[in-house]
Design goal:
This is Protein FAM172A-like. InterPro entries: Arb2 (IPR048263), Arb2_dom (IPR053858). GO terms for molecular function: siRNA binding. It holds the Pfam family Arb2. The chain is built from four helices and two strands; from the N terminus they run H-H-H-E-E-H. The protein is rod-shaped, with a radius of gyration of 23 Å. The longest helix has 20 residues. A hairpin with a 5-residue loop joins strand 1 and strand 2. The N and C termini lie far apart (74 Å). The protein is mainly α. A two-stranded antiparallel sheet has the order 1-2. It has one domain.
């Protein structure tokens, strides 16, 4: 009897692992995500560097907020990367 229960548990675990391996986590995370359209200038992001060289929001004076949209880590990361690209272009040009 114990061997039968152990075998059933093993089969359930195997089936669950198989199911999880077929889930595309990136696609799942995109489900309710806003479009990945971000500003192309620092002004459009509404950020500027202050007299101390600190990146601050132009209206609030607050530092950059990574978690701009709560519970959307992938989107927030892409926004962060887009802002980095804007700043890189400022250095290059």
């Amino acid at each position: 009897m114990a061997q039968l229960l152990a075998q059933e548990e093993k089969e359930k675990t195997t089936a669950l692992k198989d199911l999880l391996s077929r889930i595309d986590l990136d696609e799942l995370m995109k489900k309710d995500e806003p479009p990945l359209n971000f500003p192309e200038t620092l002004d459009e992001f509404e950020y500027a560097f202050n007299e101390h060289g600190q990146l601050r929001h132009i209206h609030t004076g607050e530092p950059f907020v990574f978690n701009y949209k709560e519970d959307l880590h992938r989107w927030n990361q892409k926004r962060y990367e887009a802002l980095g690209e804007v700043m890189l272009m400022m250095i290059i040009f």
